[in-house]
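in:
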């Protein structure tokens, strides 16, 4: 049996970290019952939240971790599954056979690109920029949108943040799903030169909206300010557009 989770939930919830102590408790339960702890760090891993693995901030040690996007810096298609020596040995000393192939499994060019990405990430101390700029990013988001009537929550870590979009900030009442607020913001922001990741159904699969922001690790202060300005303008334009238009 296994417990699978994203340490910071990405696309589906919008950069939501777990509450303090949650993963520690989960690990204890898993250890107690012999359940594998599998973490999906496809989106939040490889430095996105300020540490190479997002789970490091939870002070836990999973059995298996899945990584992808940031491993190729978002450009080189590559994914990887990392496991503990114990699991590796169980397969090696068991059947010795792991039938889980794809046409391009273990592709040398993709692996070389990922290796180069890791070299830059670790040797050039890129994560320091993620942390320093991440701090400024959070501050800028809080300053600009913290009291906004239609922003219900701002959450995330490192350079990975989500804005929950609501009809009314105090009550957190979601927008009508026919308003398509998240998709509207995305379309308007794209025209203005900002890429963001919209998602709806955050509350119950139907209603609830958020947008996800995941700027490059090498972003600087001026670019953060530009991002915030573009997002603010896009949000205002989206709020002014009538219902059911996109
Ligand atoms: C958190 C998370 N896990 C898994 C996946 C799927 O990854 P892949 O396309 O490499 O199978 C995604 C894709 O967006 C993701 O965001």
């Amino acid at each position: 049996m296994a417990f699978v989770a994203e340490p910071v939930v990405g696309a589906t919830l919008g950069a939501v970290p777990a509450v303090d102590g949650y993963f520690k408790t989960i690990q204890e339960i898993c250890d107690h019952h012999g359940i594998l702890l599998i973490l999906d760090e496809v989106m939040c891993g490889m430095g996105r939240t300020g540490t190479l693995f997002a789970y490091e901030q939870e002070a836990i040690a999973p059995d298996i971790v899945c990584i992808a996007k940031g491993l190729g810096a978002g450009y080189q298609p590559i994914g990887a599954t990392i496991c503990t020596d114990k699991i590796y040995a169980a397969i090696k000393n068991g059947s010795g056979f792991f039938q889980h192939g794809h046409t391009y499994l273990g592709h040398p060019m993709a692996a070389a690109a990922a290796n180069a990405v890791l070299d830059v990430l670790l040797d050039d101390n890129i994560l320091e920029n993620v942390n320093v700029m991440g701090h400024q990013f959070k501050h800028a988001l809080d300053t600009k949108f913290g009291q906004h009537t239609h922003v219900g929550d701002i959450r995330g870590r490192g350079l990975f943040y989500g804005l929950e979009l609501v009809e009314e900030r105090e009550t957190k009442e979601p927008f009508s799903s026919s308003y398509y607020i998240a998709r509207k913001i995305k379309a308007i922001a794209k025209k203005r030169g900002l890429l963001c990741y919209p998602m709806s159904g955050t509350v119950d699969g139907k209603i609830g909206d958020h947008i996800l922001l995941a700027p490059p690790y090498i972003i600087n202060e001026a670019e953060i300010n530009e991002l915030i300005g573009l997002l603010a303008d896009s949000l205002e334009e989206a709020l002014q557009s009538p219902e059911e238009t996109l």
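note: The longest helix spans residues 126-145.
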